[in-house]
From TrEMBL:
It holds the Pfam family DUF2201_N. SUPFAM superfamilies: vWA-like. Residues 30-300 form the Putative metallopeptidase domain. Residues 164-175 have a biased composition (Acidic residues). This is Putative metallopeptidase domain-containing protein. Residues 160-242 are annotated as: Disordered. It comes from Brevibacterium aurantiacum. It comes from the Bacteria.
Amino acid sequence: MRGMATNLRTPTEHELTQFRKWRSIALFHMPYMASILFSLRLIAADGLGTLAVDKGMRLYIDFPAVDVTYTDDENGQNLLHEASHIFADHASVRDEIGVTAEQAMTFNVAADAAINDDLVDAGLDSFATSGIMPSQFGEPDHQTAQYYFRSLIERIEDQKPEEAEGGDDTDESDNDSGNTGAGQPGESSNGEGKQSDGDSDEDDGQPQFVGCGSVSGGQPAPCELGDDDDMGGAAKPATKAERERIQAVTAKDVEQYVANNGIGSVPGTLVETARAVFAEKAVPWQKELGMLVRRSARRASGEGVTDHRKRDRRNHRLTIMNTETGTSRRIILPGQSTQTPSIHVIRDTSYSMSDDELFAAGREIAAISKSLRIKNEDLRVSDCDVGLGVEFGYSSLASLDQVHGRGGTNMEEALVELFDRYDKDHRPLPSAVITLTDGFTPWPDEPIVKGVPVIACIIDSAVGTAIGMTPDTPPEWIHSINVTSETAHRASA
């Protein structure tokens, strides 16, 4: 099929109008897929016979073919099918689990089954009657592509002995070759809501492409461009960073839609996918937070800080010779400080911080304790809503169980009061101050005390967003990290 003749070109105005109509229909069904749908690079692919997407989010459409084969509503649903492959990042999943080239179409079928049941739940009825569904190979709905792939591979392996015996009285459901689009009982399918029997094209006698393109983890469409071919700038592929950003924005839109419309307004597996995206994106900010905390604590931990009250034990035998008298004198070098770093955490306990957001904040406090090996007097915690609450030392997650406050939030006043307390109590200033908040608060414009870094961890709040609140951006002098945790979104799933 790779040799199938296809003519790639930019779409005509009429074709662009058609595509925009199908995209509008798709947005009517699933508005939270907007970021993906508007990021697709549209290419007219005459002779393809269907539509497909590559890893660079380039959408290939044989407009004359799909206009005849599908209704406008079905074409809108087909776009959502491809968008779901992008959101689930099935191309990366295929690489992670080691799918071979011979197994590509079997994985495509598994990926189709993993998203079609969600599309049916979202009201896209064409997939219920003609799409690949898990029930067609005896599996339950709402499992992962990996799960369905393993099931299909097992079916293929179970059928091999029968084929070896030369039995020819097998039905169509035993045709799971892994490279013909089989894997679904009955007819082969292109996974886009209509069946394809894989027969030769009536016009040129060439086999019709069956699949969704490389974006699904299946076989690439025969017309797919290489990474270094952008049709003279008309079809530039999306970069990995761009794909990740689009996926993250879509995950956020899914969560926002659930917050606005209630549980069940988005198929549960799509919500799980959104959580998984947030979990993956959590790694960079956790590393960034750890780096900032360690950097802020470096001076207090004694790294490179000279202490004239101590002797350097490693270089205690140094001497200097007087060339005139021939005598020598011993030199005593200063040592270095080995003080333990101290961190003060301000935990936002306002009403917009749900139990899940507070749990996420507690988890970060525990991570700070483990990373720096500090507790109690060296890791102080203060709750904050309209003012700074009681202060206590962190000893374990249990010490965070009692929450004080639940009013509004004013982090500006809290920071002022915090440093004022240290001054009044004649205590050494902390190595760093970390605020764990949803960001719905004013911030001080200028540093309150110079030399003490302030790190703002902005935890995403489904509660605050749902009631129309907008986070305030911390000033430039505060290190700001956006924290999106799967636990912070569990309530909306």
